[in-house]
Protein backbone atom coordinates (compact mmCIF):
# COMPACT_ATOMS: atom_id res chain seq x y z
CA UNK A 1 0.00 0.00 0.00
CA UNK A 2 1.02 3.59 -0.53
CA UNK A 3 1.74 4.33 3.13
CA UNK A 4 5.44 5.29 2.93
CA UNK A 5 7.42 8.02 1.21
CA UNK A 6 10.44 5.83 0.64
CA UNK A 7 13.96 6.98 -0.20
CA UNK A 8 15.14 5.82 -3.66
CA UNK A 9 17.29 3.12 -2.14
CA UNK A 10 17.09 -0.67 -2.22
CA UNK A 11 19.18 -2.22 0.54
CA UNK A 12 20.32 -5.82 0.15
CA UNK A 13 22.76 -6.67 2.93
CA UNK A 14 24.48 -5.30 6.01
CA UNK A 15 27.35 -5.84 8.41
CA UNK A 16 27.85 -3.94 11.65
CA UNK A 17 27.15 -0.25 11.05
CA UNK A 18 27.16 -0.62 7.26
CA UNK A 19 24.59 -1.54 4.61
CA UNK A 20 24.94 -2.12 0.86
CA UNK A 21 22.45 -1.37 -1.89
CA UNK A 22 21.77 -3.38 -5.05
CA UNK A 23 24.49 -1.46 -6.90
CA UNK A 24 27.14 -2.35 -4.31
CA UNK A 25 27.33 1.11 -2.74
CA UNK A 26 28.19 1.04 0.96
CA UNK A 27 26.35 3.33 3.41
CA UNK A 28 27.15 4.21 7.01
CA UNK A 29 23.89 3.53 8.83
CA UNK A 30 23.01 6.09 11.52
CA UNK A 31 19.36 5.02 11.47
CA UNK A 32 19.70 1.37 12.56
CA UNK A 33 16.15 0.51 11.60
CA UNK A 34 15.07 3.60 13.59
CA UNK A 35 16.93 2.89 16.84
CA UNK A 36 16.33 -0.85 16.51
CA UNK A 37 19.41 -2.72 15.24
CA UNK A 38 21.43 -2.06 18.40
CA UNK A 39 23.99 -4.78 17.65
CA UNK A 40 24.24 -3.64 14.06
CA UNK A 41 23.48 -5.72 10.99
CA UNK A 42 24.08 -9.45 10.61
CA UNK A 43 25.67 -9.70 14.04
CA UNK A 44 27.58 -12.96 14.51
CA UNK A 45 26.20 -13.72 17.99
CA UNK A 46 22.66 -13.01 16.80
CA UNK A 47 23.08 -15.25 13.76
CA UNK A 48 24.37 -18.14 15.86
CA UNK A 49 21.72 -17.81 18.58
CA UNK A 50 18.78 -17.49 16.21
CA UNK A 51 19.98 -20.29 13.93
CA UNK A 52 20.15 -22.61 16.95
CA UNK A 53 16.71 -21.46 18.07
CA UNK A 54 15.21 -22.19 14.64
CA UNK A 55 16.58 -25.70 14.99
CA UNK A 56 14.72 -26.14 18.27
CA UNK A 57 11.44 -24.20 18.48
CA UNK A 58 10.26 -20.93 17.00
CA UNK A 59 6.62 -20.58 18.09
CA UNK A 60 4.15 -22.40 20.34
CA UNK A 61 1.82 -19.62 21.64
CA UNK A 62 1.18 -18.57 25.21
CA UNK A 63 -1.06 -21.56 25.91
CA UNK A 64 2.11 -23.15 27.31
CA UNK A 65 5.09 -22.15 29.44
CA UNK A 66 7.92 -20.81 27.28
CA UNK A 67 11.40 -21.14 28.86
CA UNK A 68 12.99 -18.45 26.65
CA UNK A 69 10.20 -16.03 27.58
CA UNK A 70 10.63 -16.71 31.28
CA UNK A 71 14.39 -16.23 30.98
CA UNK A 72 14.03 -12.88 29.19
CA UNK A 73 11.42 -11.72 31.70
CA UNK A 74 13.79 -12.60 34.56
CA UNK A 75 16.60 -10.66 32.91
CA UNK A 76 14.42 -7.55 32.47
CA UNK A 77 13.14 -7.72 36.05
CA UNK A 78 16.64 -8.21 37.46
CA UNK A 79 17.92 -5.19 35.54
CA UNK A 80 15.01 -2.80 36.12
CA UNK A 81 12.47 -1.59 38.67
CA UNK A 82 9.82 -3.92 37.26
CA UNK A 83 8.40 -7.11 38.76
CA UNK A 84 6.53 -8.67 35.84
CA UNK A 85 6.55 -8.49 32.04
CA UNK A 86 3.90 -8.85 29.32
CA UNK A 87 5.37 -9.63 25.89
CA UNK A 88 3.92 -8.50 22.57
CA UNK A 89 5.24 -7.67 19.10
CA UNK A 90 5.83 -3.91 18.87
CA UNK A 91 6.00 -0.60 20.69
CA UNK A 92 2.45 0.30 19.73
CA UNK A 93 1.22 -3.00 21.18
CA UNK A 94 3.22 -2.43 24.36
CA UNK A 95 1.61 0.98 24.73
CA UNK A 96 -1.84 -0.48 24.02
CA UNK A 97 -1.21 -2.89 26.90
CA UNK A 98 -0.17 0.07 29.07
CA UNK A 99 -3.37 1.91 28.19
CA UNK A 100 -5.48 -1.11 29.16
CA UNK A 101 -3.51 -1.49 32.39
CA UNK A 102 -4.09 2.21 33.17
CA UNK A 103 -7.81 2.00 32.57
CA UNK A 104 -8.24 -1.08 34.74
CA UNK A 105 -6.16 0.59 37.45
CA UNK A 106 -8.43 3.63 37.25
CA UNK A 107 -11.54 1.49 37.66
CA UNK A 108 -10.20 -0.72 40.45
CA UNK A 109 -7.94 1.55 42.48
CA UNK A 110 -9.48 4.99 42.00
CA UNK A 111 -13.11 4.11 41.33
CA UNK A 112 -13.20 6.07 38.08
CA UNK A 113 -16.05 5.29 35.68
CA UNK A 114 -14.41 6.91 32.63
CA UNK A 115 -10.63 7.07 33.26
CA UNK A 116 -8.47 9.74 31.61
CA UNK A 117 -4.83 9.27 30.61
CA UNK A 118 -2.67 12.38 30.37
CA UNK A 119 0.08 12.48 27.73
CA UNK A 120 2.44 15.14 26.42
CA UNK A 121 2.14 17.36 23.37
CA UNK A 122 4.61 16.42 20.60
CA UNK A 123 4.73 12.85 21.92
CA UNK A 124 4.64 9.68 19.84
CA UNK A 125 3.25 6.38 21.16
CA UNK A 126 2.41 4.34 18.05
CA UNK A 127 0.03 4.00 15.12
CA UNK A 128 -2.75 1.81 16.47
CA UNK A 129 -5.92 3.73 17.27
CA UNK A 130 -5.52 4.14 21.04
CA UNK A 131 -1.74 4.65 20.79
CA UNK A 132 -2.12 7.26 18.06
CA UNK A 133 -4.74 9.03 20.18
CA UNK A 134 -2.26 9.04 23.07
CA UNK A 135 0.20 10.65 20.64
CA UNK A 136 -0.01 14.39 21.26
CA UNK A 137 0.32 15.43 17.63
CA UNK A 138 -2.93 16.29 15.81
CA UNK A 139 -1.38 15.56 12.40
CA UNK A 140 -1.43 11.85 13.28
CA UNK A 141 -5.14 12.01 14.19
CA UNK A 142 -6.38 13.63 10.99
CA UNK A 143 -8.44 11.32 8.82
CA UNK A 144 -8.94 8.76 11.58
CA UNK A 145 -11.57 10.52 13.67
CA UNK A 146 -13.29 9.80 15.94
CA UNK A 147 -10.19 9.09 17.97
CA UNK A 148 -10.39 7.15 21.24
CA UNK A 149 -11.97 8.95 24.18
CA UNK A 150 -10.16 9.43 27.46
CA UNK A 151 -6.93 11.30 26.62
CA UNK A 152 -5.77 14.85 27.27
CA UNK A 153 -2.47 16.61 26.65
CA UNK A 154 -0.02 18.99 28.35
CA UNK A 155 3.22 20.63 27.13
CA UNK A 156 6.27 18.43 27.70
CA UNK A 157 8.43 19.39 30.70
CA UNK A 158 5.89 22.08 31.75
CA UNK A 159 5.04 21.45 35.41
CA UNK A 160 2.59 24.34 35.80
CA UNK A 161 0.63 23.23 32.75
CA UNK A 162 0.55 19.64 33.99
CA UNK A 163 -0.66 20.64 37.46
CA UNK A 164 -3.34 22.87 35.96
CA UNK A 165 -4.59 20.06 33.69
CA UNK A 166 -4.54 17.56 36.55
CA UNK A 167 -6.53 19.91 38.81
CA UNK A 168 -9.01 20.53 36.00
CA UNK A 169 -9.71 16.83 35.58
CA UNK A 170 -9.73 16.06 39.30
CA UNK A 171 -11.91 19.02 40.31
CA UNK A 172 -15.00 16.86 40.83
CA UNK A 173 -13.28 13.72 42.11
CA UNK A 174 -10.86 11.12 40.79
CA UNK A 175 -10.62 11.11 37.00
CA UNK A 176 -7.01 10.52 35.95
CA UNK A 177 -5.81 6.93 35.81
CA UNK A 178 -2.28 7.44 34.49
CA UNK A 179 0.31 9.63 32.88
CA UNK A 180 1.94 8.11 29.77
CA UNK A 181 5.12 9.94 28.79
CA UNK A 182 8.49 9.46 27.08
CA UNK A 183 11.69 10.05 29.10
CA UNK A 184 12.99 11.63 25.89
CA UNK A 185 10.69 12.50 23.02
CA UNK A 186 12.06 10.89 19.87
CA UNK A 187 9.66 11.51 16.97
CA UNK A 188 8.64 14.80 18.58
CA UNK A 189 12.09 16.31 18.01
CA UNK A 190 14.62 14.61 20.33
CA UNK A 191 13.48 16.48 23.45
CA UNK A 192 15.11 15.15 26.66
CA UNK A 193 13.07 15.08 29.84
CA UNK A 194 13.81 17.61 32.57
CA UNK A 195 14.82 16.02 35.89
CA UNK A 196 12.95 18.54 38.03
CA UNK A 197 9.78 18.08 36.01
CA UNK A 198 9.92 14.28 36.20
CA UNK A 199 10.66 14.26 39.93
CA UNK A 200 7.60 16.44 40.55
CA UNK A 201 5.57 14.32 38.15
CA UNK A 202 6.52 11.24 40.18
CA UNK A 203 5.54 13.01 43.41
CA UNK A 204 2.16 14.15 42.08
CA UNK A 205 1.36 10.69 40.72
CA UNK A 206 2.23 9.13 44.09
CA UNK A 207 0.12 11.68 45.97
CA UNK A 208 -2.93 10.96 43.81
CA UNK A 209 -2.50 7.19 43.25
CA UNK A 210 -2.00 7.80 39.53
CA UNK A 211 0.17 5.43 37.51
CA UNK A 212 3.31 6.91 35.96
CA UNK A 213 3.98 4.93 32.77
CA UNK A 214 7.06 5.66 30.68
CA UNK A 215 7.29 4.94 26.97
CA UNK A 216 10.84 3.55 26.64
CA UNK A 217 10.30 2.15 23.15
CA UNK A 218 13.03 4.29 21.59
CA UNK A 219 15.32 4.92 24.58
CA UNK A 220 15.27 1.56 26.35
CA UNK A 221 17.92 -1.19 26.08
CA UNK A 222 20.97 1.04 26.39
CA UNK A 223 20.28 3.69 23.77
CA UNK A 224 20.95 6.54 26.23
CA UNK A 225 24.03 5.04 27.90
CA UNK A 226 22.00 3.47 30.72
CA UNK A 227 19.70 0.48 30.41
CA UNK A 228 16.58 2.61 30.72
CA UNK A 229 15.74 6.23 30.03
CA UNK A 230 14.21 6.68 33.47
CA UNK A 231 17.69 6.21 34.95
CA UNK A 232 18.68 9.49 33.27
CA UNK A 233 15.93 11.22 35.27
CA UNK A 234 16.56 9.70 38.73
CA UNK A 235 13.02 8.33 39.07
CA UNK A 236 11.30 4.96 38.78
CA UNK A 237 8.00 4.49 36.91
CA UNK A 238 5.12 2.19 37.80
CA UNK A 239 5.37 0.65 34.35
CA UNK A 240 7.32 1.14 31.13
CA UNK A 241 7.02 -0.07 27.56
CA UNK A 242 9.81 -1.53 25.41
CA UNK A 243 10.35 -2.57 21.80
CA UNK A 244 12.81 -1.48 19.06
CA UNK A 245 16.24 -2.29 20.54
CA UNK A 246 14.85 -5.11 22.68
CA UNK A 247 14.88 -7.48 19.70
CA UNK A 248 17.86 -6.02 17.87
CA UNK A 249 15.91 -5.95 14.61
CA UNK A 250 13.37 -8.68 15.39
CA UNK A 251 9.76 -8.02 16.35
CA UNK A 252 9.30 -8.05 20.11
CA UNK A 253 7.74 -5.58 22.54
CA UNK A 254 7.11 -5.64 26.26
CA UNK A 255 5.25 -3.91 29.06
CA UNK A 256 7.19 -4.03 32.33
CA UNK A 257 5.15 -3.43 35.50
CA UNK A 258 5.91 -3.03 39.19
CA UNK A 259 4.08 -5.44 41.46
CA UNK A 260 1.74 -2.92 43.09
CA UNK A 261 0.61 -1.66 39.66
CA UNK A 262 -0.05 -5.07 38.09
CA UNK A 263 -3.84 -5.35 37.98
CA UNK A 264 -4.03 -7.75 35.03
CA UNK A 265 -5.62 -11.18 35.49
CA UNK A 266 -5.83 -14.18 33.12
CA UNK A 267 -8.01 -13.20 30.18
CA UNK A 268 -7.41 -9.43 30.49
CA UNK A 269 -4.82 -9.27 27.73
CA UNK A 270 -3.08 -11.63 25.32
CA UNK A 271 -0.97 -11.98 22.19
CA UNK A 272 -0.61 -14.91 19.79
CA UNK A 273 2.96 -14.18 18.76
CA UNK A 274 4.06 -12.13 21.77
CA UNK A 275 7.05 -13.56 23.59
CA UNK A 276 7.49 -16.61 21.38
CA UNK A 277 10.77 -18.56 21.66
CA UNK A 278 12.38 -16.99 18.59
CA UNK A 279 11.62 -13.38 19.59
CA UNK A 280 12.74 -13.96 23.17
CA UNK A 281 15.97 -15.60 22.03
CA UNK A 282 16.66 -12.44 20.05
CA UNK A 283 15.97 -10.33 23.15
CA UNK A 284 18.18 -12.49 25.35
CA UNK A 285 21.00 -12.30 22.82
CA UNK A 286 20.78 -8.52 22.67
CA UNK A 287 20.80 -8.22 26.47
CA UNK A 288 23.75 -10.56 26.95
CA UNK A 289 25.80 -9.05 24.15
CA UNK A 290 25.32 -5.52 25.47
CA UNK A 291 26.62 -6.78 28.80
CA UNK A 292 29.43 -8.93 27.39
CA UNK A 293 30.76 -6.19 25.10
CA UNK A 294 30.27 -3.42 27.69
CA UNK A 295 28.22 -1.48 25.15
CA UNK A 296 26.73 0.88 27.73
CA UNK A 297 30.22 2.33 28.14
CA UNK A 298 30.58 2.55 24.37
CA UNK A 299 27.27 4.40 24.11
CA UNK A 300 28.41 6.89 26.73
CA UNK A 301 31.78 7.49 25.05
CA UNK A 302 30.55 7.53 21.45
CA UNK A 303 27.52 9.60 22.47
CA UNK A 304 29.80 12.26 23.96
CA UNK A 305 32.00 12.14 20.86
CA UNK A 306 29.00 12.49 18.56
CA UNK A 307 27.44 15.32 20.54
CA UNK A 308 30.71 17.25 20.67
CA UNK A 309 31.17 16.80 16.93
CA UNK A 310 27.63 17.96 16.23
CA UNK A 311 28.20 21.03 18.39
CA UNK A 312 31.21 21.74 16.19
CA UNK A 313 28.93 21.69 13.15
CA UNK A 314 26.58 24.13 14.88
CA UNK A 315 29.53 26.50 15.38
CA UNK A 316 30.68 26.14 11.76
CA UNK A 317 27.22 26.50 10.23
CA UNK A 318 25.29 28.89 12.48
CA UNK A 319 22.99 29.86 9.61
CA UNK A 320 21.79 26.23 9.47
CA UNK A 321 21.66 25.01 13.05
CA UNK A 322 20.38 26.16 16.44
CA UNK A 323 21.92 23.45 18.59
CA UNK A 324 22.15 19.79 19.57
CA UNK A 325 20.12 17.79 22.06
CA UNK A 326 19.88 14.19 23.12
CA UNK A 327 21.30 11.43 25.30
CA UNK A 328 23.88 8.81 24.39
CA UNK A 329 23.42 7.55 20.85
CA UNK A 330 20.13 9.35 20.32
CA UNK A 331 21.17 12.81 19.15
CA UNK A 332 19.23 15.51 17.33
CA UNK A 333 20.72 18.33 15.26
CA UNK A 334 18.25 21.22 15.43
CA UNK A 335 17.80 23.29 12.27
CA UNK A 336 16.86 26.95 12.17
CA UNK A 337 13.25 27.23 10.97
CA UNK A 338 14.29 29.94 8.49
CA UNK A 339 17.43 28.24 7.11
CA UNK A 340 15.77 27.21 3.86
CA UNK A 341 16.09 23.44 4.29
CA UNK A 342 14.29 20.85 6.40
CA UNK A 343 15.51 17.79 8.26
CA UNK A 344 13.93 15.49 5.62
CA UNK A 345 15.83 17.48 2.96
CA UNK A 346 19.14 16.79 4.71
CA UNK A 347 18.28 13.12 5.26
CA UNK A 348 17.63 12.83 1.51
CA UNK A 349 20.86 14.68 0.67
CA UNK A 350 22.82 12.35 2.95
CA UNK A 351 22.16 9.42 0.61
CA UNK A 352 24.42 11.03 -2.00
CA UNK A 353 27.16 11.04 0.66
CA UNK A 354 26.52 7.36 1.50
CA UNK A 355 25.16 8.18 4.94
CA UNK A 356 21.76 7.18 6.33
CA UNK A 357 20.02 9.66 8.65
CA UNK A 358 16.41 10.15 9.75
CA UNK A 359 14.33 13.22 10.54
CA UNK A 360 12.48 13.77 13.82
CA UNK A 361 9.92 16.28 12.60
CA UNK A 362 10.64 19.06 10.10
CA UNK A 363 13.47 20.75 12.00
CA UNK A 364 15.49 18.00 13.74
CA UNK A 365 17.93 15.65 12.07
CA UNK A 366 18.19 12.49 14.18
CA UNK A 367 21.14 10.13 14.59
CA UNK A 368 20.50 6.71 16.18
CA UNK A 369 23.35 4.44 15.00
CA UNK A 370 23.94 0.91 16.29
CA UNK A 371 25.29 0.78 19.84
CA UNK A 372 28.43 -0.90 18.50
CA UNK A 373 29.55 2.15 16.48
CA UNK A 374 33.27 2.84 16.77
CA UNK A 375 35.15 6.12 17.28
CA UNK A 376 36.37 5.91 13.69
CA UNK A 377 32.84 5.47 12.39
CA UNK A 378 31.60 8.44 14.42
CA UNK A 379 34.39 10.55 12.91
CA UNK A 380 33.35 9.39 9.45
CA UNK A 381 29.69 10.16 10.20
CA UNK A 382 30.65 13.70 11.22
CA UNK A 383 32.90 14.14 8.18
CA UNK A 384 30.11 13.12 5.81
CA UNK A 385 27.61 15.30 7.63
CA UNK A 386 30.03 18.24 7.32
CA UNK A 387 30.21 17.63 3.58
CA UNK A 388 26.42 17.70 3.39
CA UNK A 389 26.39 21.01 5.24
CA UNK A 390 28.98 22.49 2.87
CA UNK A 391 26.91 21.58 -0.18
CA UNK A 392 23.81 22.94 1.55
CA UNK A 393 25.45 26.24 2.53
CA UNK A 394 25.04 29.28 0.29
CA UNK A 395 28.08 30.01 -1.87
Distance from N terminus to C terminus (CA atoms, Å) equals 41 Å
DSSP helix fraction: 25-40%
The major pleated sheet works out as: 7 strands, mixed
Number of strands: 17
What's the CATH topology label of the largest domain?
Aspartate Aminotransferase, domain 2
Would you identify the CATH H-level superfamily of the largest domain?
Answer: Type I PLP-dependent aspartate aminotransferase-like (Major domain)
Whole-number tally of structural domains? 2
Task: Name the structural class.
Answer: alpha/beta
The stretches of 5 or more residues where confidence is low (pLDDT under 50) are none
The H/E string reads EEEHHHEHEHEHEEEHEEEHHEEHEEEH
CATH architecture of the largest domain: 3-Layer(aba) Sandwich
Large-scale geometry: globular
Strand order of the largest sheet: 4-12-11-10-7-5-6
Radius of gyration: 21 Å
Strand content: 15-25%
Mean of pLDDT: 97
The CATH top-level class label of the largest domain: Alpha Beta
DSSP helical segment count: 11
Summed up:
This protein is of the alpha/beta class. Helix 5 links the parallel strand 5 and strand 6 (151-154). It is built from eleven helices and 17 strands.
